[in-house]
Amino acid sequence: MHAMMLVNMPVADVERSRRFFSDLGYAINDQFSGDNSVTLVLGENQFAMLVQRDLFDSLHPVETADATKVKECVVCLTVDSREAVDALVNRALAAGGTEGDAEDHGSMYGRSYNDLDGHSWQIFWMDAEAG
After folding, report:
1. How confident is the model over 81-92, as pLDDT tens digits?
2. In this predicted model, what pLDDT tens digit does every residue of 43-52 receive, in sequence order?
3. Are strands 98-104 and 74-78 parallel, antiparallel or unpaired?
4. I need a labelling partner for 77 at 20 to 30 A (CA). Which of 44, 57, 111, 127 fits?
5. Total-model pTM
6. Ranges for the VOC domain (predicted)?
7. What class does CATH assign to 1-64?
């Protein structure tokens, strides 16, 4: 149905966010990045555009949620193994993110972290053959 997914999220400091997510191993799409935004490559045709808060605010007519105080959404991303879940979340914590929740249901395992702006990222693995 959709050819591309592009999630827009407000950030306090674009360069700080660029460093944080680069430390986690995410590639940056420079074609969709600039002084006021940085675009993370999440997968094939899947992107998160991190937009400087004042620009983000000017583009949307309603109040922008402060993700450190209210949860506006949770970005859920799969990885290939339980070990990959731990590796990515541990890199996020080492880069300054904060620990979120964790769940282990045997065939589904996940952990989450909050980035430097409070956005919640749920990283999980599912055993497709167990379902």
Report:
1. 999 999 999 999
2. 999 999 999 9
3. unpaired
4. 57
5. 0.91
6. 3-126
7. alpha beta
pLDDT digits (tens, 9 = 90+) for 2-30: 999 999 999 999 999 999 999 999 999 99
Number of residues written out for the chain: 131
The answer to whether residue 42 scores a pLDDT higher than 90 is: yes
Average pLDDT, the chain: 95
Rounded Cα distance between 45 and 65, Å, is 26
Angle formed at CA 40 by CA 32 and CA 16, multiple of 5 degrees? 100
Q: H or E stretch including 49?
A: strand 46-52
Protein fold of 66-131: 2,3-Dihydroxybiphenyl 1,2-Dioxygenase; domain 1 (3.10.180)
Nearest alpha-carbon partner for 115 in 38, 46, 63, 5: 38
Contacts of 103 (CB under 8 A, 6+ apart): 109, 110, 111, 124
